Amino acid sequence: MGFAHISNGSRSARWSRRGILAVLGAVPAAALAGCSSSSGSGDSAGSADGKDATASAQAAAKKQPTIKVSPASGATRADFSNPVVVTVTDGTLASVKVTGSDGSTLAGSLDSAGTKWTSEQNPYSGTKYTVTAKAEGVAKETVTTFSTKSVGATYVGYYTPEANSTSGVGMPVSINFTHAVKDKAAVQKAITVTADPAVEVVGHWFSDTRLDFRPETYWAAGTKVTLSLRLKDVEGSDGVYGVQSKDVTFHIGRSQISTVDLSTKEMTVRRDGKTLATYPVTGGDSSHTTWSGIMVISERFKETRMESSTVGLGDEYDIKDVPHAQRLTTSGTFIHGNYWASSAVFGHQNASHGCVGLHDTKGANDTSVAGYKFYDSSMLGDVVIVKNSGEKTVAASNGLNGWNLSWADWKAGSAV
């Protein structure tokens, strides 16, 4: 409204134009900038171009997944004491497979992010492995190979009882190693003994070379026992590695427990809780007393030679055909048939050099005598208990006789 008088003359008009220009020139820069930013479609088109350029730059900068394997591809003497690890950057793993030249495969698992796969066990020594891995969204697989170094010195464990055998309820699982074991915990962790029906089974080290397993009480009749050896590449001593990886199964038969009372010179045989037979016996004399305690039959011979020199008794005897002999201790105690003593001795006098004797005949073929009958009814792993012998209890390590240790003492001998 302040410019209505401009129509009165040209002079006024010229002045007015200058005035208008002056007024427009006085508009704050901020106001001009505000008008400029809101004008026209040209500015909108420029903004869209910027977004497209940014997206293109981001797409160009995005990296493809990269897979890395440890041990490294091409390694020829890779360490076998660590697991195989597969990782991916800028992505996630879709699959991993590790196969060995020996036909084995290594199972493994992914972490929660899906970027790291670790094998559940270490690779074996002296083996070539192929690792095949694939990332999500990538068609091409990554394939690498490596070989582990071979070991130098090795050890094995010889076990009792034999695979697929049937034994008595007293049979422990006994393992004797060919090399002294320094790292007992590592070796014991690589060995498990399981029972069906289930029962706790614990290992006990008798020495650097012997490890036995047993439950708290005798096995139940009919039990299935499985020994699992996972000793391959387990370092038992410095630079000495195991080579076995196998499962061994054996069975427990009927329960037979025989009790020898050397005060009455009589043995009572009980099978599955019932008395099967009673036999007159003879035990060690006062100069050669028989070990007392719980003993397990560890060897059986229809006939065998017995020499006194092998048990530290000089040349007192040498009998080439002892019938129906069953070993009770490593040191030489047997329960066996005896054909050279008078039949009046059995049940009345302890007259042996430490063994338990039953009446028998030469040749081991007379089915009517006690020696034959007891041998025929027995099996490896049967329990023979000797009492009232006048001798101390046999050492648990002398034969398969760990039952002479309390459960607490037995467990104290475990390394794990």
UniProtKB/TrEMBL annotation:
GO BP annotations, alphabetical order: cell wall organization; peptidoglycan-protein cross-linking; regulation of cell shape
Source superkingdom: Bacteria
Catalytic residues (positions): H336 (proton donor/acceptor), C355 (nucleophile)
UniProt keyword Acyltransferase, yes or no: yes
MF-aspect GO terms: acyltransferase activity; peptidoglycan L,D-transpeptidase activity
Pfam families associated with the record: Big_10, YkuD
Matches recorded under CDD domains: LDT_IgD_like_2, YkuD_like
Signal peptide, first to last residue: 1-33
Biased composition (Low complexity): 38-64
PROSITE patterns tied to this protein: LD_TPASE (PS52029)
Pathway terms, separated by semicolons: Glycan biosynthesis; Cell wall biogenesis; peptidoglycan biosynthesis
Name this polypeptide is given: L,D-TPase catalytic domain-containing protein
Record's GO cellular component terms: extracellular region
Keyword check for Protein transport: no
Domain L,D-TPase catalytic: 256-387
Keywords associated with the record: Acyltransferase, Cell membrane, Cell shape, Cell wall biogenesis/degradation, Lipoprotein, Membrane, Palmitate, Peptidoglycan synthesis, Signal, Transferase
Region called Disordered, residue ranges: 38-74
Organism: Streptomyces mangrovisoli
